[in-house]
TrEMBL record, chain A:
It comes from the Bacteria. It holds the Pfam family NifU_N. SUPFAM superfamilies: SufE/NifU (SSF82649). InterPro entries: NIF_FeS_clus_asmbl_NifU_N. This is SUF system NifU family Fe-S cluster assembly protein. Residues 9-102 form the NIF system FeS cluster assembly NifU N-terminal domain.
UniProtKB/TrEMBL annotation, chain B:
Keywords: Pyridoxal phosphate, Transferase. Catalyzes the removal of elemental sulfur and selenium atoms from L-cysteine, L-cystine, L-selenocysteine, and L-selenocystine to produce L-alanine. It holds the Pfam family Aminotran_5. Its EC number is 2.8.1.7. Belongs to the class-V pyridoxal-phosphate-dependent aminotransferase family. Csd subfamily. The lineage of its organism: Bacteria, Pseudomonadati, Pseudomonadota, Alphaproteobacteria, Acetobacterales. InterPro entries: Aminotrans_V_dom, Aminotrans_V_PyrdxlP_BS, Cys_dSase_SufS, PyrdxlP-dep_Trfase, PyrdxlP-dep_Trfase_major, PyrdxlP-dep_Trfase_small. This is Cysteine desulfurase. Its cofactor is pyridoxal 5'-phosphate. It comes from the Bacteria. Residues 33-405 form the Aminotransferase class V domain. It catalyses: (sulfur carrier)-H + L-cysteine = (sulfur carrier)-SH + L-alanine.
């Protein structure tokens, strides 16, 4: 009945949705922000720890939401570690494109490996009402890195 | 089969469905299973055609021109008012104020009664199961610096209004207005309107009932209920968007200051001051929803032709069937177990978030709503901040559609296993 939904709910999404990685509070975080999707009640809090050279040393989150938003946040915490804030924000932009269009034309080269890992998020592009589920965590990341406390996925 | 003492004329659902053009369409290659009528109902051809006919043959602004078309349009608009009065068994069509929707009707009362008639030290009493439309306007009134308090009546674990709590919160006689829903848009609970009115009036409080859901499913008789204000919204009652109804006792409307100012609501204007027109015109500033009123009239006629007893019986059978089928779905929790309930079911599945679930159901052609249905405090009350899925029925809903939903829920649970 739902076979054609396997593109949206790939095993990676279901797995990260069920058992999100880095699902904890970072007590000594250097950056933090809250992400809210008031329309559907999805909500998460993201914490970042920065290394002396400014790179993201650790990332963690807590929150509630659908499988897609939880999986997206979980994948985010795994992929941004070791990145500079600029690299992480650039990656976030690519994820937005991926979620909205299902493709990422300029995602080769340095980004290729990360984008391959995030590719399961591309399934939402066929579901306009679900795109914001995939992008909420990345909006929150941007807010945290730019020093604002709140992000919404509107 | 139990035999009813006075069997209602049966509703022929197959025939009813043919009256709704949209039900013939498919979604993602599957027949549409529309289970979101509580958010907004579909429209029968009679409504669509009445509105088109009005625009093609009988349209002009109302109450303004002494020419034929304007007179015809005014007649149609006032005929819609009379139809709404009959629908609620109001004593007088002048007790019917057309608004944009229920939300505006409640805001009108919050403004004109709350700010114009209520006194400092008085309270408004709402319940935990209100739609935001019947909560936020009262919070705004409370925060307006007029010394009006806002009290909230509890909802029981069964999802019913806690009448003991209601009585306790009325006891000190400070409550000037009880504003509660006549049927919850989340729990399906139908509240005991007559008892609420008796309790409230015994303590000197007026009563507003939000009938946005109830009026769709039950015969409403405002005089039998004895309330002071009643509202409903056209688009949930198979009518168009953009029109709602506020009914209030004429004596109340006469005491209340206007809500919006402008054309049509005045008896006379000079540069210095204005005299208000008598109700209902006093509350209908500006060009009203004329075409929408014609559509609403057609919807009320449509519902009356099928008959509310038949609609009620059809819905009761659907509710029983849904109760049986949904309680058979493993891992499914239904929100609310009220004894008196209508065709609205909110639920959560143990291994699927409501949004994921509604995406899955959409793939099966089944339209349900996911979220908190404009009732965040109620979801918080039941510890469901993440929301619920809601299936809601209309007079065109079939048993087979409920079966499709139940089957799809079982498959969805397997999908997320
Ligand atoms: C119980 C209840 N009250 C009020 C409303 C508000 O109706 P409207 O949005 O048409 O003003 C709704 C529906 O949305 C409702 O279900």
């Amino acid at each position: 009945m739902f076979d054609d939904l396997r593109d949206l709910y790939q095993e990676v999404i279901l797995d990260h949705g069920r058992r999100p990685r880095n699902f904890r509070r970072l007590e000594d975080a250097d950056r933090a922000a809250r992400g809210d999707n008031p329309l559907c009640g999805d909500r998460l809090e993201l914490w970042l720890k920065l290394a002396p050279d400014g790179r993201i040393a650790d990332a963690a989150f807590l929150g509630r939401g659908c499988a897609i938003s939880m999986a997206s946040a979980s994948l985010l915490t795994e992929t941004v570690k070791g990145k500079t804030p600029e690299q992480a924000k650039a990656l976030g932009e690519k994820v937005r494109t991926l979620a909205m269009t299902g493709a990422c034309p300029e995602c080769d080269g340095a980004l290729a490996e990360d984008m391959e890992r995030l590719a399961p998020l591309s399934g939402v592009h066929e579901f306009p009402s679900r795109v914001k589920c995939a992008t909420l965590a990345w909006h929150t990341l941007k807010a945290a890195l730019e020093g604002s406390k709140e992000a919404t996925s509107e | 089969m139990s035999v009813a003492l006075q069997p209602a004329p049966a509703l022929d659902v197959a025939r009813v469905r043919r009256d709704f053009p949209i039900l013939a369409r498919t979604v993602r290659g599957k027949p549409l299973v529309f289970l979101d009528s509580a958010a907004s109902a579909q429209k029968p051809r009679a409504v669509i055609e009445a509105m088109v006919r009005c625009m093609e043959t009988a349209y002009a602004n109302v109450h303004r021109g002494a020419y034929h078309l304007s007179e015809v349009a005014t007649e149609s608009y006032e005929a819609a008012r009379a139809a709404a009065a009959r629908f609620l068994n109001a004593a007088d069509p002048r007790e019917i104020v057309f608004t944009r929707n229920s939300t505006e009707a409640i805001n009108l009362v919050a403004h004109s009664w709350g700010r114009g008639v209520m006194r400092p030290g008085q309270a408004v009493l709402v319940s935990e199961m209100e739609h935001h439309a019947n909560l936020v306007p009262w919070q705004m009134l409370r925060d307006d610096g007029r010394g009006i308090e806002l009290r909230v009546c509890r909802v029981t674990d069964e999802g019913e209004l806690d009448l003991e709590d209601l009585a306790a919160k009325l006891a000190d006689g400070k409550v000037g207005l009880v504003a509660v829903t006549h049927m919850s848009n989340v729990l399906g609970t139908v509240t005991p309107a007559e008892r609420i009115v008796a309790l409230a009036h015994a303590h000197g409080a007026k009563v507003l009932l939000d009938g946005s859901q109830a009026a769709v499913h039950r015969r409403v008789d405002v005089r039998a209920i004895g309330c002071d204000f009643y509202c409903f919204t056209g688009h949930k009652l198979y009518g168009p968007t953009g029109i709602g109804v506020l009914w209030a006792r004429l004596e109340h409307l006469e005491r209340m200051p206007p809500f919006l100012g402008g054309g049509d609501m005045i008896a006379g204007v000079t540069l210095e001051r204005s005299e208000w027109a008598p109700p209902p015109a006093k509350f209908e500033a500006g060009t009203p929803p004329i075409i929408e009123a014609v559509g609403l009239h057609a919807a009320l006629d449509y519902v009356a032709a099928i008959g509310l007893p038949a609609i009620e019986a059809h819905e009761r059978a659907l509710v029983d069937h849904a109760m049986r089928r949904l309680s058979g779905v493993e891992g499914l929790t239904l929100l609310g177990r009220a004894r008196d309930r209508g065709g609205v079911f909110s639920f959560v599945l143990d291994n699927a978030h409501p949004h994921d679930l509604s995406t899955l159901l959409d793939r099966a052609g089944i339209a349900v709503r996911a979220g908190r249905h404009c009732a965040e405090p109620l979801h918080a009350r039941f510890g469901l901040e993440g929301g619920t899925c809601r299936a809601s029925f209309g007079l065109y809903t079939t048993r087979e559609e409920i079966d499709l939903l139940a089957d799809a829920l079982v498959r969805a649970r397997e999908f997320f296993a």
